[in-house]
Amino acid sequence: MLLENELIKLRAVEPEDLELLYVWENNPELWTVGNTRQPYSFYLLKQYILNSDKDIYETHQLRFIITDKISKKSVGTVDLFDFDIHNSRIALGLFVDAEYQGRGLATAALHLTEEYVFNFLKVNQLYCHIAETNISSRKMFEKENYEVNGKLKNWIKTPEGFDNIIVFQQFKNS
After folding, report:
1. What pLDDT is recorded for position 33?
2. Which CATH number fits domain 8-127: 3.10.20.580, 3.40.50.720, 3.40.1000.10, 3.40.630.30?
3. Are 106 and 94 within 8 A, CB to CB?
4. Which of 17, 50, 119, 172 is deepest in the core (most CB within 10 A)?
5. Separation of alpha carbons 86 and 123, rounded Å
6. pLDDT, tens digit (0-9, with 9 covering 90-100), for 54-94
7. CA–CA gap between residue 149 and residue 171 (Å, rounded)
8. Who contacts 51 (Cβ-Cβ below 8 Å, separation ≥6)?
């Protein structure tokens, strides 16, 4: 299975991604959506990359790098995590660098991720938590026919106070 379409390619994390991951993971503006509370060191990220060869069934998580096929640049990440094999569900985190947003790359990555999760892993459910104030992400998941199945009130603390989380779900046979 090739994880690519006309716009992007999803690929495994490579050692060459270390500096870019360091920038993305240490951007305090993104910490509230990623549940990060502190910076990541080069060492820790290097260890993560070195251990990324482990199987998703062992680690219950997987990260892809989103590569723009036109510019050949790494533009974001897809994180699959909290893989629950018994209940056949997996959580999704999708990030596109601000410089590349608004070009349909996130939607393209979402489609490839769905193909991988539903057709290759044979998982029943893909879900994500989106901050209520993240209007662009909410619109994308709504446009892609994800079901809204709950609101977690005051779920994440932000510099402005607390934000609610909207729970989105997509099922294999939807």
Report:
1. 63
2. 3.40.630.30
3. yes
4. 17
5. 10
6. 889 999 999 999 999 999 999 999 999 999 999 999 999 99
7. 12
8. 59
H-type alpha helices, 68-117: 105-114
pLDDT digits (tens, 9 = 90+) for 98-120: 999 999 999 999 999 999 999 99
% residues pLDDT > 90 (the chain): 71
Dist. CA 40–CA 99, nearest whole Å: 22
Name every residue whose Cβ is closer than 8 Å to that of residue 172 and which is 6 or more positions away in sequence.
118, 122, 123, 124, 125
Nearest of 64, 148, 78, 70 to residue 107 by alpha carbon: 78
State how far the Cα of 135 lies from the Cα of 128, in Å rounded to an integer.
14
- Is-above-0.85 flag for pTM? yes
* Tokens read off for 136: 């662009």
Q: How many CA atoms lie within 13 A of 134 on its CB side?
A: 23
* Positive or negative torsion for Cα 147, 139, 131, 3: positive
CA-closest candidate to residue 154, choices 164, 146, 144: 164
